[in-house]
Design a protein that fits this description.
Layout (H helix, E strand, L loop, with lengths): L1 E4 L6 H12 L1 E5 L18 H6 L2 E2 L12 H17 L3 E6 L2 H9 E2 L7 H8 L3 H11 L1 H6 L5 H14 L3 H5 L3 E2 L8 E5 L3 H17 L2 H9 L16 H8 L5 H25 L6 E3 L13
Parallel strand pairs: 1-4, 1-7, 2-3, 2-4, 7-8
Antiparallel strand pairs: 5-6
Helix pairs in contact: 3-4, 5-8, 6-8, 10-13, 11-12, 12-13
Amino acid sequence: MALIAGPTASGKSAAAIDLAERIGGVVVNADASQVYHDLRILSARPDAADEARVPHRLFGHVDGAEACSAARWAADARAVVAEVHAAGQVPILVGGTGLYLRTLLDGIAPVPQIDPMVRTVIRALPVTETYAALIREDPAAAARLAPGDTARVARALEVIRSTGRPLAAWQAERSGGIGEAIDLRACVLLPDRDTLMQRCDRRLVAMFDGGAIDEVAKLLARPDVPADAPVRRAIGVPEIAALLAGEIDRDAALARTQLATRRYAKRQYTWFRHQPPPTWRRSPIASSQFYFTESV
């Protein structure tokens, strides 16, 4: 199995398609926003012409009214990888969601269901109180997490309160990963940071000009998509929602989305630079060669 990963707008999809054409591969999405059917433009999913060149899987396969967790995606990806291998082809995973990739390769922590009352109480707390509680109840987790990382701080506190064990203890018992069962050839694209940020900004302009605003308007008009649906937290959706509500103008919405994208790309860049195993290739360019010629 091949894996092409890296931060936002790094040319991963084009390289994956080129590689798939050369080796008879199937491009499999590993991006948390590109799973949603409702966000083709804003998530920069491959267009119809790209999809016609080689088979694509797990792009836009989840309805916006549903939530796609890392566990759900990993289960879907395991099935797709098995199907592609059974057909004698090479699955080529492409995307920038590190949690998705880690869950697929390393498995998932068997954390029991969180008590709904515990979750309700914690999610109602101001983030400062949540972090202060985490310092008292799971200081190791608090030391690992940034105080402003609202979702992860709340998750760690939920786990310790609901199960009596810290999240790290559950994570040490990961199961279900396919990393040991496959022959993996991975490459992380780490282009020049300034160039990356400029590409992110230009891509957002093209998105706003190319229908992203109408795309979000249609999503927000759906009565079956709740306000807290994960798809509505995707970068660009809150900013365009504010534009559509008359709270900000188009230029402000674009600037906010560009800033959010750059911040996300910086976090991705740091994660992919340091977290994957040292055996994963690092490359500054988007090329389908990638050292895969002799490896796949």
